[in-house]
Amino acid sequence: MNFNEILYGVAYYDEYMPYDRIETDFKMIRDAGMNVIRIAESTWSTWEPKEGVFDFTHLHRMLDCAAKYELKVIVGTPTYAIPSWLAKKYPDILAVTHNGKELYGHRQNMDITNPDYLHHAQIIIEKLMEQVKDYDCVIGFQLDNETKPYDTCSKYAQAKFVEYLKNEFPDIDEFNREFGLDYWSNRVDDWDAFPDIRGTINMSLDAEYKKFQRKLVTDFFAWQADIVKKYKRDDQFITHNFDFEWHDYSYGMQPEVNQYEAAKCMDIAGCDIYHPSQSSLSGREITACGNIARGIKGDNYLVLETEAAGNHPWLPYPGQLRLQAISHIANGACMVEYWHWHSIHNAIESYWKGVLSHDLRPNRLYKECSVIGNELKKYGHRLVNLKKTNKFAIIADNSSLTGLNEFKLNNESDSNYNTVFRWLCDALYLMNIEYDVIPADPALFASYENILVPALYSATDDVLNALNEFVANGGNMVVTFKSAFSDEHLKIRHDVQPYIINKALGIQYDEFTLPDNVTVSCGGKSSKARDWMEMVDCTTATPVAMYEHKHWGVHAAITENSYGKGRAMYLATLFGEDTLIEALKLFFGEQKNEFDASYPVVIKRGTNMQGEKIIYLLNYSDDEQTVTCHADGLKKLCDDSTVSAGDCIALAPWDFSILYAD
């Protein structure tokens, strides 16, 4: 989906304001060069204070004022936070989870399969759409907000699960065999006697329920999208603000949603990316999570939420807010929107700071937003819809993520699937190698020269054979430990490990343990192995690094193998980032680019709608950095000055430079 300009703006809530200042706010938003606001996703109880009693005063105030100040509007459906009267009238709406029944108060406490919830959610969506359908300023709709299944284990959800299993396994004996339910007498020989899923000790069945819960989210989105489509114009889009696994900030792949499937009913993917700032601002989360978002539909995406100030430690240094905005755009985002405009004066998010502080006066952050907004007004049309053609891809897989949550790498560690995923993502990022994030879909593999496979614990034969074929046809593949260990239902393979792809990898193992004072060295960099290690023996592969240990030193920690026309590397344990980078450099060779630059200078590229090559140089450090150009024919976007081979570009702390070539 293409846009005419970069969308830059804020979430705005007239309902939360301590006094009437909407004219002041919208004029300030416009004067800052912002052009879009997001409204409405959080205020069902304001609009329907009693069942069947509707008051859209605040909605129309925001829409009318947005039209006056020529601001575009994205309207969110308000279904993720239910009003108290609804919970009181229908107590079953509050979700029953593995931890028991929810209490009313926090958001996202409902059962999205409950028929009473769905009935009233449809009413409020339809009422909302009737109110907004005639406003030209409304450009799109956000379905719900950071939606998940909320671990619903209600009678409605579990009944749907049994029907789902009956459809997947018409033969109940096959179902019992596939999930190994003879263990501890867990067989189910009558669908009507299916036990409460919350009691299962069968990890395969538990993982299948989590897969089913992800499907509930997909179905919920499709249901909402069908309602919205009855009202929306052809020029309006449908999106959603997908979020990520949370580590006090956005970290990695979301375990509770199959975002690839969930987004099929949408026109463009959206996301919420929050990250550390100050001395911890590295750009890693902007890239890793942004690449996940770009991969959801294989296209540009919207950042529907990111921080202006946000959490206490995130107050940005001068210049960082501007660098962050441009970093999202350099990664393929067509929109950057802050949550939120004004700091809220009560409730749980009172200290999640917006652009304006609690005094609601213009401040340092507002002034920096104004710099960003007015720069984007000048040249944002040349940055929007940036298309990337990357040679590298990293596979992200929901089933493997769930599998490694069921069977943890190390019960004494927080490491999980996303730890391994980010290990590879961050190494490429620090090497200034741009990459796509793709699902484990064989149809996508041939589009890349290099594929990295983090902990593909659960995989079908088709996927594993396709990876072998990818290497045989000339591709380069890096695979980590804990890959190809189980099938799609977490049944452990009863053959040589790693299953099937041992052909391309040229290795095998049958022992594994937790590292205890084991070291791995490569390219002069040494680090401790941690969390998991496999006792790998080479069949056709060549050892790149052996474990440095008195007893385990006969086994390989890193291997390389030629297979057909391609090559494959195996990483048998988790070790330090510097050591990993040296191993990847050895395997992939030097990646040449137009600039002699290394982290903290990050290079990002793409092609704009005018056919120009756009190059971003981003300085993620508190010190000035200098980079040397190795190409001719480049110009700076800010002033059209020429940059030639041999020229140096100085980047101030937390600053950037954008160049282009015809």
UniProtKB/TrEMBL annotation:
Enzyme class: hydrolase
GO cellular component: beta-galactosidase complex
UniProt keywords, alphabetically: Glycosidase, Hydrolase, Metal-binding, Zinc
Keyword Ribosomal protein recorded: no
Annotated InterPro entries: Beta_galactosidase_Trimer, Class_I_gatase-like, GH, Glyco_hydro_42, Glyco_hydro_42_N
EC number(s) stated in the UniProt entry for this protein: 3.2.1.23
SUPFAM superfamilies in the cross-refs: (Trans)glycosidases, Class I glutamine amidotransferase-like
GO biological process: carbohydrate metabolic process
Domain Glycoside hydrolase family 42 N-terminal: 12-378
Stated family: Belongs to the glycosyl hydrolase 42 family.
PANTHER family registered for this protein in UniProt: BETA-GALACTOSIDASE GANA, BETA-GALACTOSIDASE YESZ
Full protein name: beta-galactosidase
Organism, scientific name: Agathobacter rectalis (strain ATCC 33656 / DSM 3377 / JCM 17463 / KCTC 5835 / VPI 0990) (Eubacterium rectale)
UniProt lineage: Bacteria, Bacillati, Bacillota, Clostridia, Lachnospirales
